[in-house]
Design goal:
There is one protein chain. Helices cover 9% and strands 55% of the residues. It is mainly beta and 456 residues long. The chain has one domain: Porin. It has a 14-stranded antiparallel beta barrel with strand order 1-3-4-5-6-8-9-13-14-17-18-19-20-21. A hairpin with a 2-residue loop joins strand 11 and strand 12 (285-296).
Length: 456
């Protein structure tokens, strides 16, 4: 691959993996249950064996296990999501955000003991859209329509530059520098009793809300339709850039057993910012308060990953991983800072209280013949969200996943890898008497990548 082609790939990787990556619905908290079709068909296990260019995401040290030469990968993960929400006495309503496409492109190469490359990847996120006509868009108590949307979209994308070195026949070390992009949309109403709960010091079970230096004119606009029965956030495409990184290793303990581990650093994203609006009202009558919204210190968590790969025979490879996502460090509260046009600020800290999450992955690959590999796996991670703070627009409640996949050799230099993941339905209810919504989530995804080898 010449320098001109590589420069074009760098620009395309940035566009596909970071800027154009759409919001996704995650399966282990905000993370996907597996990255790349090889790992995604082996339960998400990825630490101790070569799993293609997605080693840049999973464990950069595994790139040392590739053959000499270059490898280009182009593909996408297509996900279908079935999310529903209901209240006592209401029929379940389904999110219309059902389909998500997460593209990726990458190029990795090995020259001597060194491996390196670049790739654009979708990391994960959340998303749901319940429209403007369901009970979620009605006035509390009277159930009068407001015409305001109930929707969320969150995505995290990365442009990753990894490097790995094969220190010896047994030990490989790797690391990466990541350019990280985050984007968030929130359109959601909050009933007056939830707003009062956050504003009155004796209560504050859902979080804390404060008003700062609001002008009489702003107060007048807030009460233009009388005492409001709800407040509605209308935050569109708040975004920011930042950086992150990862370090990893693989160690060949014997001819049949390989150990692997990596540590992904917590990101350093700048605060998500953008123009926004708030609406206060009762029924379809509401007044808009324009301004600028900022989400303080929204980050992707640090993650510790440990894995093993056992070559049971020439045909059979068995793998297993344990991952620890430190969600509690980054999702304790959701910090909204709203600067009102004309002066004043509204601060809202909404409790999230996510727990750290341990995810278990197991899988097996059987080489049926030189041109065909068959794969299967299983993944489990307990829902990290406490029931008192479950958000129907961020219902990261999936727990059990079953994976199947295959890899086909295409001519001498090509390979096609496919993975199917079924996320079993899980249902949770918000235990707060101020909320009380129930949500369910199930998903199916198809991950497909074509890879082409160079210089062999």
């Amino acid at each position: 691959m010449n320098h001109t082609s590589l420069a074009r790939l760098v620009r395309l990787s940035l566009l596909v993996g970071v800027v154009a990556a759409p919001p996704s619905s995650a399966t282990n908290g905000m993370a996907l249950s597996g990255y790349g079709p090889v790992a995604a068909s082996l339960g998400g296990a990825s630490q101790a064996y070569y799993n293609g260019n997605f080693g840049a995401v999973n464990n950069p040290a595994t790139l040392s296990l590739m053959d000499a030469g270059g490898r280009l990968e182009v593909g996408a993960n297509v996900m279908h999501v079935n999310a529903q929400t209901w209240d006592s006495g209401e029929r379940p309503v389904s999110s219309t955000a059902e389909w998500f496409v997460m593209p990726n492109i990458s190029y990795m190469a090995k020259d001597g003991n060194w491996s390196y490359g670049i790739g654009g990847f979708s990391q994960g996120g959340l998303g749901a859209d319940y429209g403007t006509r369901e009970f979620l868009s009605r006035t509390p108590l009277t159930r009068a329509p407001t015409g305001l949307r109930d929707k969320s979209q969150l995505m995290i994308g990365r442009l990753i530059v990894p490097m790995a070195v094969q220190v010896s026949d047994r030990l490989s070390l790797g690391g990466s520098v990541d350019l990280v992009y985050g984007r968030l949309t929130v359109e959601q109403s909050m009933p007056i009793w939830a707003m009062l709960d956050m504003m009155l010091p004796p209560l504050r079970t859902l979080g804390v809300a404060r008003l700062h230096r609001l002008s009489p004119r702003t107060f007048g606009r807030m009460l233009a339709t009388g005492l409001p029965s709800y407040g509605h956030m209308d935050f569109q495409n708040l975004d920011s850039w930042g950086y992150g990184g990862q370090v990893g290793l693989t160690f060949k303990a014997s001819d049949t057993l390989t150990l692997g581990a990596s540590y992904q650093l917590e990101t350093r994203l700048a605060d998500l910012e953008g123009d926004a609006g708030m609406q206060l009202g009762s029924g379809i009558l509401h007044t808009s308060i324009p301004g600028k919204a900022r989400i303080d210190d929204f980050q992707w968590p640090a993650t510790l990953k440990i894995g093993v790969a056992y070559r049971a025979s020439d045909q059979l490879l068995l793998v297993a991983d344990v991952k620890r996502y430190y969600w509690s460090d980054v999702l304790d509260t959701f910090k909204v800072r709203y600067a009102v046009d004309g002066g004043g600020q509204i601060d809202v800290d909404m409790n999230q209280k996510w727990k750290d999450q341990t995810v278990y992955s197991i899988g097996g690959e059987y080489t049926f013949n030189p041109d065909l590999k068959l794969r299967a796996g299983f993944n489990y991670g307990k829902n990290p969200i406490p029931s008192a703070y479950l958000q129907h627009l961020g219902e990261a409640i999936a727990e059990y996943h079953l994976m199947l996949g295959a890899g086909w050799k295409v001519a001498d230099a090509g390979e096609l890898d496919l993975a199917y993941t079924h996320t079993f339905k899980n249902t949770e209810t918000n235990s707060s008497p101020l909320v009380g919504l129930s949500s369910s989530l199930s998903q199916d995804s198809l991950n497909l990548i074509y890879s082409h080898r160079f210089g062999r």
